[in-house]
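One chain given next:
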Amino acid sequence: MRSDTVTKPTEAMRKAMATAEVGDDVHGDDPTVRRLERKAADVLGKEEALFFPSGTMANLAALMAHATPGGEVYLGAHSHIYFYESGGLARIAGLLPQLFDDAGGMPGPESIRSRLRPPNIHFPPPALLCLENTHNRAGGTVATAADTSAAAAVAREAGLPVHMDGARLFNAAAALDVEARDLAEPVDSVMVALTKALSAPIGSLLAGNAPFIATARRMRKLLGGGMRQVGVIAAAGLEALQTSSQTLKEQHEVAAALAEGLAAMGGIELDLDTVQTNIVLFRLAAETGVGAETFVGRLGEKGVGAVAMGTSEVRFVTHRHIPGSAVPDVLAAVRAAL
């Protein structure tokens, strides 16, 4: 339960990979990749989409396509792009991060507006707003289309484009019982991962309008993301888009059951309101005297994988390989580790 990235491809994905029609994608003639990109553009409600080896590369290419080096990008202090993507926005894209508070997930408009600076020769030019849905470090919390529209409106007032890191956007859509395109509509570009809850083995997709995707394609090549007969993995992604989202609500139910069991334990601090999708984030109470790394190690000895998210915070992630029947065993391992 370390992450939903540990999921294995389904049998249908394996068959699709084995029989995929392929070509050289750098030259734009891999038919399976083209079908995947057209499907993704339709699902996300954007003009075009582009297949990437990873979400980190897709986010970085989006930053580089939207903004020129030296610009200021507005993003959350707890966002995945800032916190977990190896500083690529600064080292490679050449952008200065201007951080707002997103500890609870999607920030309110005033939180973003407070970080915008007036035009001044001393300041870097404003370039881009980045949002995240679901929000990983906030515990997989969900933003509605209205939440995103309100945040994006601040960027529009300042003449800035908006990019969404929607690695788990399909989880958000399932939780809200809406289409992914509804949640992506307020933003100019969106990245979605195929390798998390959708169970594909490789790949993420970036979607936006045609000029943006043309620039992102060049950035992908610059970053080493140009691939050849990649239809063999795009086939799994196509299958994932068509079928894997059907199990997301069940994964959320497992997470909710796990969270309820954890919240009832002594030594565990957990806000049930934050468990909205497939991530369960909790804190070890100080009186336990146990740090997150030690606790995760003890769980591992009992066959349960988890991730330390800080000195006292621990994360579980449910996915299609974790049935509801596993919850009692996980809770028993937690009690023993405590």
Summary: The mean pLDDT is 96. Residues 171 and 248 are 6 Å apart (CA to CA). Residues 4-243 form a domain with the Aspartate Aminotransferase; domain 2 fold (CATH 3.40.640.10). The two ends are 18 Å apart (CA to CA).
